[in-house]
Amino acid sequence: MFELKYIIFFFVLFIGVPIAVIFAKRFVWIEKSFWFLLLFFTASTEDINFFSMETYRGTSRGFEIGLVDITAIILFFVIYSRKDKFPIKMPPASYIYFTYFTFSLISIINSDVYIYSFFELWKMVRMYFYFFVVYNLIRSFEDIEEFIKYMLIIVAYITLMVLKQKYLEGMFQVKGPFPHQNSLVMYMIVYGSIFLSYALNAKKAKLYVWITAFGAASVDIISTLSRGGMAVFSISIFLIFLLSYKTKFTAKKLGVTVLFFVCATGILYKASDTIMERIQTAPEESLNVRVVLAEAAQNMANDKVFGVGLNNFGLKINPPYNYGEHIVRKDDDEKGGIVETVYLLVAAETGWANLLVFISFLMFFYIKNIRNYIALGKGKYKKYKYIPMAFIGCLTSMYLQSTMEWVLKQTNNFYQMMFIFAVILVVSRLIEEGKKNEKSK
């Protein structure tokens, strides 16, 4: 029998989407509402899962279609309707992503459960479509700042949920609306970095708003009690302060720095008992598990040129496969987890060559962002230098955190990463357009 959720989904897709496109094209405030939802639904992922296999311990467990995808479809048709004025373009670096996708597709020849691999491939298609839409949607620096304002609302929503979980539900390690506390950490590192960079460097920033937002993001991260998360967030904060002072020393920056140290001391003192408890009670076997899973991942990558099959790690870490035979198990029914680093996970499932492609994809945007930072050092767009400054901090933290956790493959964080990558390309495009306009004048 056709489930009600599927009836609702197809009604929304074939009736709701066309109506939404018509109204979004006619009313600016409706279109901007979809802009907000395009970002909001990356935090609160409501979706329908086709052929769901929730018991499988993999990075994808079904053919998901979420509200964020529906919103992206609506905005795609809005963009398409304006293609004569604003031509639709393929984002730079798409070829690297397609290469990564191709190697992932080829890895299926070694999959033992093909549908697991197609779950992850479908996710990769969704991520690229989202990336494509964001790149073609944003037309100016003012558009980017509008999305940054939406982030304030999203952080407020997440923080309220975190406080509810921590103080009303007594949750030891909060996770907000995300599947795991590590997802919350990475997500909030991005927004916290943007808020701090904006507060320090944007002349029109209302300090009490942006410092409060940064504080909320920081409290959320601390509330997860993630030792690695707090460490990499500290690196992002340090880089943003360093780059901000390098750009220009001001009394405002000095005041924010003093306020930061005072508030950070207070928050850490208040949370010190819980943090120390987390450190002291952290199980010793946690490190051992990471090590043995890393060994298993290397066994898989070394055994097959194209890996053991996309999204098949959760299957092949267990008997009858021998990749994890060195792992001590409590009983024959105990199932192994996923290796705690996204880099070895990519190598294990799709091969060492694809790991190089994946790293090339990540570094393309990191280097592109640094070039944006240098290019915005002068000229009329200098006031937007805080954008690449924030991304230098948060990308550094994201890439470092990914050496400890595979969270970057979580749907929420994957969307957020692709959003950042799209904005980096938009900033680069706007810089080039500005140079061309100056030459024409």
Count the DSSP helices.
16
| Helix residue percentage | 55-70%
Strand order of the largest sheet: 1-2
State the major sheet.
Answer: 2 strands, antiparallel
Which blocks of ≥5 consecutive residues have pLDDT under 50?
A: none
| Arithmetic mean of pLDDT | 89
Compute the separation of the termini in Å.
66 Å
Number of strands: 2
Classify the beta-strand content into a percent band.
under 5%
Radius of gyration: 22 Å
| Shape field | globular
Order of helices and strands: HHEEHHHHHHHHHHHHHH
* Backbone structural class: mainly alpha
Topology:
Elements (H helix, E strand, L loop, with lengths): L3 H23 L1 H13 L6 E4 L12 E4 H14 L13 H13 L7 H24 L3 H28 L12 H21 L5 H17 L3 H21 L3 H31 L3 H19 L9 H4 L25 H9 L1 H24 L10 H16 L9 H30 L1
Helix pairs in contact: 1-2, 1-3, 2-3, 2-6, 3-5, 4-5, 4-14, 5-16, 6-8, 7-8, 7-9, 7-15, 8-10, 9-10, 9-15, 11-13, 13-14, 14-15, 14-16
